[in-house]
Amino acid sequence: MLTNQEKIEQFQEKAQHIEQGGGEAALAKLKAKGRLTTRERIDLLFDQGTFVELDKFVEHRCTNFGMDQMEIPGEGVVTGYGLVNGRTVFAYAQDFSVMGGSLGEMHAAKIVKCMDKAMTAGHPIVALCDSGGARIQEAVDSLAGYGRVFYKNTMASGVIPQIAAIMGPSAGGAVYSPALMDFIYMVKQDYAQMFITGPQVIQATTGEEIGAIELGGAMTHNSKSGVAHFAAEDDADCIEQIKILLSYLPSSFQADPVRLECIDPIDRREEKLNTIIPDKSNRPYDMKKVIKMIVDDSEFYENQQHYAKNIITCFARMNGTTVGIIANQPMVMAGSLDINASDKAARFINFCDCFNIPLITLVDVPGYLPGTSQEFGGIIRHGAKLLYVYPEATVPKITVVLRKAYGGSFLGMCSAQAGADMVIAWPTAEIAVMGAAGAANIIFRSESEEEKEAKIEEYIKNFSTPYQAAQRGFVDQIIEPKDTRPVIINALKLLENKTWELPRKKHGNIPL
């Protein structure tokens, strides 16, 4: 019979063995490729000494193909919670050194239990994904495990923020849990990949030849597919960026974002904003410079910066409070809306509304992008997503029209009719059904070219300004550009106790 001391020593020995994961050789192999081990990643994420591990001693119960003789320490995944910059966060980290981080029945059970606790306690969850996929030996138990994880991701959506980091291979079913989460980070190293079917399967079935990084690497998904939202240089950079994102987010839908002390004067006026818009309407300017001049300390954290660059989505702070900014970028495609920009913005708006983050929309949009590729690709359906999410959003919505605000694309960028609580316009705003040249070609098509030029000037003077919209009450304020920061902060203060009432229904049917 063991003494109490011997039992404690037995516990310590078991715990230390599990913490070694796949063993020294397997861990050394990972380190040789520049990867951090699972527990090193956990240590980087959480404040020192705060991580509490859950279900460390869980074991699989598979007996197929000699699995009854196989030990899988920790079931290939570390789960638990701790403090990240002083705030509670839950996390799970898959361990590639243990059977390739493959997901089996009990591996999935640990993840689901961790997510359940995160939802119950009302705290974000971070998934550090590094898995070869389903544990084939466990057959349908593995498949069912994925199903349970996907279900829990869906139930957690809009309840707590969910953040995934692709820090190793993710193929087949392993990609769909991250896809169901709010944000995906990818490490820009050749060990981090994400695809449904790998290069070999693609070559065998279609004859196409493509490398794994070209198919599913970080920049592919950040710039081409739009699946990923952030790219990181390495494991450490990825975890540091996750901490930055978490600093902008509330713990759950029942909480407000953390408010930081603001040392940037709230009444700061930027004279440079008065001259940032070119005199000629067809000349571009950088909207990111506008954002930097109005937010706290010129700092913002951009979401999907490499994808659909014609629209900017980012988190920033105004008077210490988190805001979500959606802005057309005149430097790219003149800031027009296309399929990808509509999808990108709509998803970001939806997230902000889930978690009580006020929306600031900066408008300079000439229209929806024309062309057969857009029409055949479903620009009507995709563009309608913006028209759907803005009216549905109940957070404070402040719209600032800087220059072009033409036709349906302005409605898609949160006009008064789309539910904006405050519409502010610069004197440079061009709020009109369409651009002056296009309008003249329709209205004055029977006129000579000389007469048409004069009519265009007349149209611009009378119908391409903010004043007609202001006369109708569609614009609440016309301001000098330099006053934008204090005016927005004042509007946010006005709306911080905003109330709303949506029609009673199960849920809407967004045009997906």
Describe the structure.
- By secondary structure, the chain is α/β, with parallel strands linked by helices.
- The chain has three domains: 4-248, Alpha-Beta Complex (2-enoyl-CoA Hydratase, Chain A, domain 1), CATH 3.90.226; 271-429 and 465-495, 2-enoyl-CoA Hydratase, Chain A, domain 1, CATH 3.90.226; 435-464, no CATH class.
- It has 19 helices and 17 strands.
- The chain has helices spanning 4-19, 24-32, 38-45, 105-121, 139-156, 176-180, 199-206, 212-216, 218-223, 235-248, 287-294, 339-354, 372-377, 379-392, 407-412, 436-443, 449-463, 467-471, 484-495; strands spanning 52-54, 77-84, 87-94, 125-129, 162-166, 169-171, 183-187, 193-195, 230-232, 300-303, 311-318, 321-328, 359-365, 397-406, 422-425, 430-432, 477-478.
- Strands 10, 11, 12, 13, 14, 15, 16 and 17 form an eight-stranded mixed sheet that branches. Strands 1-2-3-4-5-7-9 form a seven-stranded mixed sheet, with helices on both faces. A two-stranded parallel sheet has the order 6-8.
- Helix 12 runs parallel beside helix 14 and helix 16 crosses helix 17.
- It is elongated, with a radius of gyration of 26 Å.
Please outline what is shown here.
The chain has 512 residues and is of the alpha/beta class.
Using only CA atoms, what is the Rg?
Answer: 26 Å
Which blocks of ≥5 consecutive residues have pLDDT under 50? Answer: none
Q: In the CATH hierarchy, what is the superfamily of the largest domain?
A: 2-enoyl-CoA Hydratase, Chain A, domain 1
Using the coordinates shown, work out and report the CATH topology of the largest domain: 2-enoyl-CoA Hydratase, Chain A, domain 1
